[in-house]
Hints:
- The structure is a single chain.
- It contains three helices and twelve strands.
- It has helices at 5-14, 59-66, 108-111, and strands spanning 18-20, 33-36, 40-44, 67-71, 77-80, 85-95, 100-106, 115-116, 123-124, 129-138, 144-147, 151-159.
- The strands form three sheets. Strands 1, 3, 4, 6, 8 and 10 form a six-stranded antiparallel beta sheet that branches. It has a four-stranded antiparallel beta sheet with strand order 2-12-7-9. A two-stranded antiparallel sheet has the order 5-11.
- The chain starts with a helix and ends in a 32-residue tail after the last strand.
Amino acid sequence: MKLADVDIRAALATGRLRIDPRPAEQEIGAVSVDLQLGTTFRVLVPGQTVDLAPSGGHWQDKMEQLMTLVEIRHGEAFYLHPGAFALGITRQRITLPDDMAGRLDGRSSLARVGLMVHATAHTIDPGWDGRITLEFFNCGKWLLAMRAGMHICALSFEPLLSPTSKPYARQSGAKYRGQDSPLPSRLGRLL
Length: 191
């Protein structure tokens, strides 16, 4: 079951659900809220090898070296080439209560020109607090110009039957807690 627009507005009004900056009325759909593209991206350094089952530590340091941080200004374009992958981030910071999960969906209009907005990470865990990293892939044939501030995805909200015993923001091992920029993979923290 998902929250309807009236439920979303009520949750925002009481502070149960927080979205900062708060969405404009036209950004609240029937069952979701449109989110905007932020100004920070990470792009892969080409020609590198990434060991998906690394031995030893320093995975995070290695990933930082394999991705370049790119900042643009509001309204400026970030260009994603055909076949390219990049991380981006939402403009909004989202805070979910312990008994609500979010579901991130790309926009159909963007997918129709080849832009995939999230490769796998569509569930936003209960207790999440931070901006959302987006996993962009251009599977089309055109160079895509994405502008900071554009509507990039939609977030819907699913109430849980009970509050989770593992709210994301309070887990000691929460790898992406409180993120304000697109963070590279922290897979190695599990090993």
